Structures are given as structure tokens and as C-alpha cells.
């Protein structure tokens, strides 16, 4: 494999490729809060149900993708040495809210000052 048994991963989550076509806007950009949240929750559930890995942290990228997409990071850890999943409570709604506040809502304020 590409990761050692006790290795850790940081994964870039690109909602434009995870959301259904009907949820991706003009130019391939996902702008909707609910779509971002749904993508993160669905991907977290998939990872944790289909693998023994756990999403232990999440954040948004401080930079938008080339087309303007908000992208996210998942920090993934394997199960404990005893094979147990790690118990972590993530507030993905807060992660998405911070992304929208910092990258969308503040964008208008920056543009009005230039």
C-alpha cells in the first residue's frame, strides 16, 4: 500500500467532484452551504463505514480552487493498534460555516475596498 499501517493521511476534498451534477453550478463551481455539508458528511460516513479509518479533523482550504471552488481537508487516522475505530466528534457544519464566512461573505467586503 501507499501508507504504512500506522500512517496518517491528509486528503483534499473537492466537492465539485463529489456532489451530483444537479448540485454543481455554472463553471463546475459548488456554492451552496448545504451541498458542501452534505458532501463532507457523506464522505466522512463512507470512509468510516467502508474502511477502519477515522476522520479526526477537518478544515477548509484557505485558497479556492482555480474555478473558485471552496475545498476542504480531512485528516485521517487508521484504527488503534487494537483495531478499534477512534472516537471523534466533528462539527462539519462549523467547518463549512467558517469556509463560507471567510471565503464568500468576506469576499464582498474585500472587493468593496479595492
Tell me about this structure.
With 114 residues, the chain is an alpha+beta fold. The chain has a single domain (9-112), classed as Vaccinia Virus protein VP39 (Rossmann fold). The chain contains three helices and three strands. The chain has helices spanning 15-18, 33-50, 92-112; strands at residues 9-13, 54-60, 72-77. Strands 1-3-2 form a three-stranded antiparallel beta sheet. It is elongated. The termini are far apart. Residues 109-114 have low confidence and may be disordered.
The CATH topology is given as: Rossmann fold
Biggest beta sheet attributes = 3 strands, antiparallel
Structural class per helix/strand content? Answer: alpha+beta
Can you give the mean pLDDT?
88
Question: Per CATH, which architecture?
Answer: 3-Layer(aba) Sandwich
InterPro entries: RNA_MeTrfase_FtsJ_dom, SAM-dependent_MTases_sf, TlyA
GO molecular function: methyltransferase activity; RNA binding
Protein name: Ribosomal RNA methyltransferase FtsJ domain-containing protein
Pfam families: FtsJ (PF01728)
Amino acid at each position: 500500500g501507499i501508507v504504512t499501517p500506522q500512517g496518517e493521511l491528509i486528503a483534499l476534498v473537492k466537492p465539485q467532484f463529489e456532489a451530483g451534477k444537479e448540485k454543481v453550478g455554472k463553471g463546475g463551481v459548488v456554492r451552496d452551504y448545504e451541498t458542501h455539508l452534505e458532501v463532507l458528511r457523506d464522505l466522512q460516513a463512507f470512509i468510516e463505514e467502508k474502511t477502519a479509518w477515522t476522520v479526526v479533523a477537518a478544515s477548509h482550504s484557505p485558497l479556492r480552487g482555480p474555478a473558485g471552488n471552496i475545498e476542504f481537508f480531512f485528516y485521517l487516522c487508521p484504527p488503534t493498534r487494537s483495531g478499534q475505530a477512534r472516537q471523534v466528534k466533528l462539527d462539519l457544519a462549523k467547518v463549512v460555516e467558517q469556509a463560507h464566512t471567510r471565503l464568500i461573505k468576506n469576499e464582498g467586503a474585500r472587493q468593496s475596498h479595492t
